[in-house]
Amino acid sequence: MHFVYVLLGWEGFVTDGRVLRDVITKRHGLKVPHGKVKNWRNLKHSSAHNVIKRCFGLLKPRWGILRIPSFYPIRVHNRIIIACCLLHNFI
After folding, report:
1. Can you give the pLDDT at residue 33?
2. By CB distance 3.0 to 4.6 Å, which of 39, 76, 79, 85 could disulfide with 72?
3. What is the pLDDT of residue 3?
4. Residue 8 in contact with residue 84, Cβ under 8 Å?
5. Domain ranges of the chain
6. Where does the UniProt annotation locate this protein (predicted)?
């Protein structure tokens, strides 16, 4: 239950497909066999979905700053989220 990939900078709701496309298109992003994206995505999504929900379920109660609306600039807010994820992984 560690954070491996945290995608910051998008406000509001982001779909799983959008995150997957972003991860795959990065220079050093995930490597997926050609033609297998849909099957691979379904398999990984179903196996990881509950773990991801549990991680965020632990992260928000532990770090109160994530439970309230943030009025910090987006750059500062992104750094706060990364710091909370890193501390979560460390603890």
Report:
1. 67
2. 76
3. 80
4. no
5. 16-90
6. Nucleus
Q: What are phi and psi of 70, to 5 degrees?
A: -100, 135
* Alpha-carbon distances, residue 14 vs 1, 26, 62, 85 (angstroms): 21, 17, 23, 18
pLDDT of residue 83: 93
Contact 78/9 with Cβ under 8 angstroms? Answer: yes
The b-or-e profile of 12-47 (16+ CB within 10 A means b, else e) is eeeeeeeebeeeeeeeeeeeeeeeeeeeebeeeeee
Two structure tokens written together for 89 = 């992984």
List the structure tokens of 19.
Answer: 């995150």
pLDDT by residue, tens only, the chain of 91 residues: 788 777 777 666 667 677 777 777 877 776 766 666 667 767 776 776 777 778 788 888 888 888 888 888 888 988 998 999 999 889 8
Tokens of 80: 């706060």
